[in-house]
Amino acid sequence: MTPESTKRDPDKTRRRILDAAFAQMYRQGYQAMRVDAVLADTKLTKGAFYHHFPSKKVLGEAVIDEVLAGMIEQMWVRSLDDYVDPVEGIKAVLRMIPSMMGPQLTQLGCPLNNLAQEMSPIDEAFRSKLNRIFHVWIESISDALKRGQQNGSILPGIDTRGAAIFIVAAYEGAVSMTKSEQSNEMMNICARQIELYLEGLRL
After folding, report:
1. Which of 61, 114, 141, 156 measures 20 to 30 Å from 122, CA to CA?
2. Does pLDDT of 5 surpass 70?
3. What total number of domains does the chain contain?
4. Do residues 142 and 161 lie in contact, with contact meaning Cβ atoms separated by under 8 Å?
C-alpha cells in the first residue's frame, strides 16, 4: 500500500497505527513504546498520526479497546458460541491459541496480562479497561458453562463464574511460566491439567 492510497483510506491508516503500536507494546511494554518508532514502522507523518490519536495515552487506550478486546472477542466469545459442549469448546480454544499466536506466545507471553501487570498499578484508566476485558473473557466461559448446564453436559452444582475465573487464572499462569521458561513444555504440562479439570465439570 502506498502512502498516497493510505491517506485516502483513514480507517486503514488508523488500523496501521494501532497494529504498529500493539506490536511495540507487546514486545517492550506501553511505557517503552515511542510514537517516533510507530511512525517509522508505518511510514506516516506526525500530522497523520495526531489526526487519529492526539496523544500516546489515547493510542494506548485504543489498543486496549480495539486490539486486545478484539482478540478476546475472536478467540473466546465467538469461538465458544459455536460449541454445544462447552468443555470441548474451551479445550479447542486452548489448543488453537498457540497456533494463532505463534512463537510470540512462548517468547513474549500474553499481551493482555503483560499490559495489566505493567499498567494496572500506575494508571487507573488502563486498569479499568484491561479489567473489563478480563471480565468479558470470564463471562464468555461462564456463559458457555451455563449453557452446558442447561443442555445437561455440565454438572448442575458447578459455580460457573468461579470455574471460569479459575480457568482464566490457570491459563494466564501457564503462559507466564512458559514465558519465564522460554519453553513450550511448561504450557503443555499446564494445558493437560486444565483439560483434566474441565473433564471434571462434566455431568
Report:
1. 141
2. no
3. 2
4. yes
Stated as kind and residue range, the H or E segment containing 62 is: helix 56-62
**Same domain for 49 and 61?**
no
- Cβ-count burial of 32 within 10 angstroms (0-12 exposed, 13-18 middle, 19+ buried)? exposed
Q: Are residues 88 and 175 in the same domain?
A: yes
Report how far residue 105's alpha carbon sits from residue 98's, in angstroms, rounded to the nearest whole number. Answer: 7
Statement to judge: residues 98 and 119 lie in one domain: yes
Q: How far apart are the first and last CA of the chain?
A: 53
Q: Are residues 144 and 83 in the same domain?
A: yes
Which residues pair with residue 202 across a beta bridge? 154
Q: What is the pLDDT of residues 149-202, one digit of tens each?
A: 999 999 999 999 999 999 999 999 999 999 999 999 999 999 999 999 999 999
Taking the CA atoms of 35, 40, 44 and 45 in sequence, report the sign of the dihedral they define: positive
Q: What are the cell numbers at 153?
A: 453436559
Instruction: Identify the domain containing residue 166 by its residue range.
Output: 57-199
Q: Does one domain contain both 183 and 164?
A: yes
Task: Compute the mean pLDDT over every residue in the chain, rounded to the nearest whole number.
Answer: 95
Whether residues 27 and 63 share a domain: the answer is no
